[in-house]
Each structure stands twice: as structure tokens, then as C-alpha cells.
Amino acid sequence: IAGRGSGSPIVWNDRVFVVSAVPTSDGVRGKLAFNTYCFDRETGKLNWQKTAVEAVPHQDTHSTNGYASASPCTDGKHVYSHFGSQGLYCYTLDGELVWKRDDFGQMNTRNSFGEGSSPTLAGDLIIVPWDHEGPSFLFALNKTTGDTVWKTARDEPTCWATPLVISIGDRKQVVMNGQNYARSY
What we know:
Strand content: over 45%
Radius of gyration: 16 Å
Structural class: mainly beta
Number of helices: 0
Largest sheet: 4 strands, antiparallel
Low-confidence stretches: none
């Protein structure tokens, strides 16, 4: 697979989804194509590849990290690829773009170590962590439309944690680790 990505591949039935950030060939130094790939699980054949966006990242990343560090996730109908400052992209399992959210702003990570928190699905929501050296938040988006359902401020600096959704009785809780505290929402 071209480029670099440190997000975990995910598998849904006969499909494997992977993300990567690939240097472009248009001559612009540092410009990357933020890609989602779908492979056939049995043969390894590429079913489809989609470029979410081509951009020059605004900040460096650690030498052991790439710019496609968040793992994608799927509910079996859509696959969600999160590229941090470059946005969150929702595709059908056949690679058609359903919606995108590229309005979260620029994440500035401690020591320019890079971005890498993965989103988590919770029922009809996709939970998106946004901890960095600026105003930090936890977003809950409608997974079908990408619209914000709720957003809560977090008193946390850079963190690379992925939200954990648990049930307490009949209520769902989003547990999010941080540098200062682990909190439940």
C-alpha cells in the first residue's frame, strides 16, 4: 500500500479497509493524498480507493508516525475515515462519498507528535475525539448525516486515546482517557 498509515485495518465480511497518506506527484513538496482503501479479504485485490483530500499538513509528525494514524470504523453500511485536521469522511461500503466534515479546524499536537485519535461508533452516533494544545472537545455526530448532535469541551491537552462506549444499565457512557483524567460522558 502506498504511503504511510498507522491506523489499524478493519474487516467487515469480505472487505478490509485501510487508510494511508500518500505523497502526491504534482510537485508540491509535502502534499499528501489522504486515502481510504477497500481490499477483498480473500484475494487481497483492491476493490476501490478514494482520496478524501489532498493537502500539505500544517504541522509535523513524529518520525515513527504518519499522517493517517486513526483507524477507520464501520457499521456494515458505511465506513468512516478520520484524518484529524483533514477531516472525517463517510463512504458507502462501495466507496461512494456520503458526507464529510472538514470544519473541525487545525489540531496542534504536543511536540508536533501528530494526530491519531480514532473515532468510535455508538448506536446512531460517531464519537470524535479532538484533544490537542488548543480548545479540546468531544463530538457526537449523527453517523448518517455528519451533523453535530452534541459537543462538549474537554479540559485536556493532546491525547491520542480512542473513546470507549459502555452501557451502565440502560444508558450509554462514553469513556475518554486524557492526560489529566479519564472521564465519562
